[in-house]
Amino acid sequence: MATSPSSRDDVAPAATNPPPPQHSSLIHTDLQPPPSPRTHRALRRLQSAHTLGAKAASQGGSLISPHYRDALHRNASPVRGTGAAPATTTPPLPATATTATATNAAALPPPPRNRGRANSDAISPMMQQMNAVGAARRSGSTKPVFSHGHLSLQQIIREGPNDGDFIGALESARWKVVDEGVKSAEDGMSTLRIYVWLVLLDAPIMPTDDYLGLIHRGASPAYAKIRNDTFRTLTTDPLFRRRVSEASLIRLLNAIAWKLHDAREEERRAHGLPAAADAVSRPGSSHSSRPTRESLTGGSMSGASRAGAPEPGTYVQGMNVLAAPFLYAARSEGEAFAAFHTLLTRECPAYIRGAMTGVHRGLALVDRVLAVVDPRLSMYLTAKGLSAEIYAFPSVLTLCACTPPLPEVLKLWDFLFAYGPHLNILCIVAQLTIMRAQILQSPSPNKVLRSFPPLNADLIKSVTIGIIKQIPDDVYADIVVHAQ
Hints:
By secondary structure, the protein is mostly helical. Among the domains are: 37 residues, no CATH class; 118 residues, putative rabgap domain of human tbc1 domain family member 14 like domains (Helicase, Ruva Protein, domain 3, Orthogonal Bundle); 136 residues, Cyclin A, domain 1 (Orthogonal Bundle), CATH 1.10.472. 48% of the residues lie in helices and 0% in strands. The chain contains 24 helices and no strands. Helix 5 packs antiparallel against helix 19, helix 19 runs parallel beside helix 23 and helix 20 packs across helix 23. The longest helix has 25 residues.
């Protein structure tokens, strides 16, 4: 990409390398608040955030328990226009892992039959909950009752479900994320947020040694591209610059690049193709096109069609901005790696594949949704020659992380991870409708759209929920699968 994905990308300060990892336990140890950038600067630590070894597994009872994998398998939810579809399987958990940085979670409540779903899609149940709460508030009655509504979000995450009710616990957790939010300081720091993200993203358990092994491999084939990006990451954000060093960002992105490189080479070997020495740094061939019938109905590819499947993604410019909130919110680089890699490979693999076809599909959907929601604004922008390809590329690629302030980005990501990152398309349209008057009154709206106004996560969420009610089912189905 010739252009930088964000106007916030300039120069980020380097920092010293972190000390050796120190292990802590999510289940048995009280989490201590991370240092706030308002007090003093602390070195990033390569430490595991929660120990999920045999001892923790034997006790069970937590959302991060290995038992949850079985619940995921038993509770495959129906998809649009079909019966039951195979659930996304979770990799087997190591029986004696000494440290881990992520969790198995995020089984989804069944969406209505006329809606598609993505890995984290729960928007239709959310709309039912929203409507119920709205009716309750208008009538002066209490909020609807959820199976774990009497527990706080922290209790749900730390203590797990009652009587093995994983589905009810996750539904309650999602609702609490939207209704109450994740408690955090003014700078966005929270001891709970990264664990909520890991659970909602259904990030697999990853021993810290796996992350360290990727780092010790040295420079990846994409290292030069990474170094060309990291020094420009969120340079106008003092909160990010004071908490996250450039060295930490380089390590994370280099480890991700190695992971993507390995997946790409393994895929090529499986199909009898020659290895590509520069597979990470060179854009790969793109086989991804319009959503197929199988992707819309939840069908899986047969062994014969698997040979024509898209290759795994590569490192692309802009991933530095997408990685930034993970490093800011996480308590260790290992946690950030687990969550970031899951997002890239499970939720939006087409964003980093080939010519970033998923991003371009998302941009086309921004135009389609805007035409439905606000025809006048859509026609005005079209008459000025302004399509989403021109002004919304950074917002689509980075899930709005390119727009400050960072604490509001974190709050918006809470919503996206709870009900599906694909909803970022609607969040972008929501921002356009919020600045509608300014755009329509400007003779040169391209100047207005060069930089979106500061994020207001609560307002964007409210407008997004209203937009969901207006869009046709076929458009929604395309939104669900556009990043796959």
